[in-house]
């Protein structure tokens, strides 16, 4: 997805250039604003629902048992790169469990899309009802 966005913007002259980083690549960097994409459910979402390679996982040291702990750390890295504000981009339906947690745990977030707000309010009501 990042490559598609980057290709779409190639050749445009912006007063303040855009920088494209992976969450791993953003460690130690800083920007005025950060836009983080890919918060949908599924194998290519964040966090990924794709099961890991069992052989590789067996050879790695045991990680903590908290669900999606490494992805949570990466999300924290991404959000904290912004000096002013981070924007998380997610589809109005089928968004990742990280988005659900941010909404359900009453973090100070603004939902810019009316459709997204309507969908999430409906989904939260069903989850809590």
| Largest beta-sheet characterization | 2 strands, parallel
Number of helices: 5
Instruction: Supply the helix-strand structural class.
Output: alpha+beta
Largest beta sheet: strand ordering: 1-2
Query: Whole-Å distance between the termini?
Result: 35 Å
Q: What is the percentage of strand-forming residues?
A: 5-15%
Radius of gyration: 17 Å
Q: Mean pLDDT, nearest integer?
A: 81
Helix/strand order = HEHHEHH
Number of strands: 2
Low-confidence stretches: none
Q: Looking at the structure, what is the overall shape?
A: globular
Q: In which range does the helix fraction lie?
A: 25-40%
Q: Can you offer a commentary on this structure?
A:
The chain has 129 residues and is an alpha+beta fold. 37% of the residues lie in helices and 10% in strands. Strands 1-2 form a two-stranded parallel sheet. It is globular and about 50 Å long. The chain starts with a helix and ends with a helix. The model has no long low-confidence stretch (mean pLDDT 81).
